[in-house]
Design goal:
It is globular and about 75 Å long. The protein is built from 15 helices and 14 strands. Helix 2 crosses helix 4, helix 6 runs antiparallel to helix 7 and helix 7 packs parallel to helix 11.
Amino acid sequence: MPVNEPDVIPVNCSIPPELLLVMEDYKAIANHLISSGLYHKVGQEKHYYPIAETDNSGKPKPIPPERELRDINKEWFNEHYKGKYAAHYLDSAASFAMQQIQSWRTLGGDITATPHIRKPIARLNNDLYTIQESKLDGTMRIRITTAPHKSVIMDIKVNHRHFSEWSLNRPGALVIVPYGLRLCFTDDTTVPKSKESAAYDFNFNRVVIARSDGQIKEIDMSDVLAIQKNHKAKRESVQSTMPHNHGKGEKIIKKHGKREHNRVNDLLHKKIHGKANEVLSFVGNRHLGVEDLHGTTKDILKDDRGVKFNAKMSNWIHGAFEDIIVHHHPDSKLYYTRGTSRYCPFCSSQLTHPTWKQSKCPNCGLFDRDMLEAVSGLVRTNTRHKKGELWAVVKDIFPHKIETELLQSSKMIRGLPSGSNLMSVYPECAVLSPEGLSDIDIRNDVMHGNRNDVYDSTQRVIGSELKLELTESGNDANSEIDERMSRLSA
């Protein structure tokens, strides 16, 4: 059963001198454990405890990586810190160091930038501190163990809106930083996996969510892009007006960059679970498929062709969106995204893309690309794929009624009516007339597929004006246009 992520309450307070020394030593211990873990390749291979004589199961238990890292460095810790700190400090530091190593490996494991703790910090497990007193008004007394039979007592005042609710849960880790404490409370309430599901596709200007009942919703993200665009204009203005005062320019950019980060983060919280609540209200208690985009940016920018997208990819906030939605919706998991825009989730045919926002299937017709990828994510959230097998399709999972609803919803391309069949690869040809008619279908010989060789802009303009004029007068537009076209060509 999935478990809720820990809730963190920040407390800004003065740190006693004893704990300042503890943070410096903890940083040194953690850095030593990180180097040792990388050298011994802890966590890359599974190791097992020896089977006890009384164990008849025949299945050895795996050794957790943090426990293995602790055992490797136990002799070193006793040599340098025995008597100065409690033995449990080695457990906490090993757990913290293993988190840094695993995060570094997840991000690619660049050997030129190995993880290293630079600022004083101490992350203590719940066996190294005790909450002696906790009142509803936020007054707390915490006893922190340093050495055997030695401790430090801190009286703090918590000013957090969720303190009365979160403090009822089990205390987790306690993080000590030079300017305060970070209290972690873990909610052990198990979240039952729902039979219903949903999945989302994240893009720059919108998020599309598909549900297992056939409903698809689009959430506009243009207001977030507006904040980023405004910050970009400010940054370019500062860089152009202060080319010779680099220090002052960097200070101004850093100040506005922090404001931009806070505004974007606040807006995402409002959209996901706050005042607007457009995301979680639509997802409900369904099992959520989260788009796995961790290596996408790196894959795009790894060659010279992707350098031109560097500025645009830096504004892609899919990581912040994922962190917020996973924290507030614990019943979620990542789904594999490669190929979601390559194969049709309804018939598994290979897709083509007439325009950036359109996907065309030779069997099913034209789709909205983001909505089709959301449906693909919904399929992958509900299936397990084995290497060498074909991807599952919608009809393998959902009944025919749900398949029909998802099929119709995916064809609702923004700005176009349902069922429009566009033949051009150029988006400017999709402009509709005020009556809801497209000038693409005026003549059958104007464009076929890619129109580079057969398209004449004068014919399109003349045909568009004639059709609008004759449609308003009530005459037969197509026959009249054919006659005038033949006279013009003659």
